[in-house]
Amino acid sequence: MDERQFYTEKEEVRKVKLICPSCRGEFEAPVRWKVCRKKKELPRGMGEEDRKKFAKASSYMVRLDDLAGKLRQPLMIVLSY
Predict the structure, then answer these.
(1) For 68-81, b where at least 16 C-beta lie within 10 A, e where not — what string?
(2) Which of 18, 27, 38, 41 has the fewest CB neighbours in a 10 Å radius?
(3) What does the pLDDT look like over 13-30, one tens digit per residue?
């Protein structure tokens, strides 16, 4: 079974506080993320092994933008929830 069936995938743009590596200045910029949220129920027809994997699965986010900001350089992202 493909583990992607456990999640609902959606692309989102969020404003994130960034730190420029050259000047150490802080600013906010939009960053694209792939948000994978765990489905509420296991898809039908899954075996016992798939049930165990689904029980351990959790929602997660993956950053899609490697470069952002004024200089289009790799930046350190400060996440605050």
Answers:
(1) bbeeeeebeeeeee
(2) 41
(3) 988 787 777 777 777 888
